[in-house]
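Example record used in the benchmark description.
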Amino acid sequence: MLKSRAERALSGSLQLDAVVVTGAGEASKRGAANANRTARVGGRMFVWRDSTWTDIAHGDSLQVVRVAPFSDAYFALLRALPELRQAAALEPAVLVAGRRVSIKIDAGGKTTWAEGEIERLVRDFR
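Model output (structure tokens):
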């Protein structure tokens, strides 16, 4: 049987109903799994909590220092604590537990450091 030129042109394309079904299935899976999302990054385990990837080692008693992503403070922090580089890639926000302080990288955090502040943070984190 010979196909028309239009049929041949469309034969390699996707059907809309297949795309819609696949997209809807993935969206519903993401919604259902949203509460149980986890990620292992840089030897740490993170859980998705309140729109933030939260290090399971973080305790509510730890002070939290917030740092704005891609700010001068952020890049200085990653130079001072290179072990945070992998975790810093988690978006939209990440909370990483340290020994005496946790660091949260999210919008609205610090953009610069006061003199001596980052040195104290590194000491408290490690």
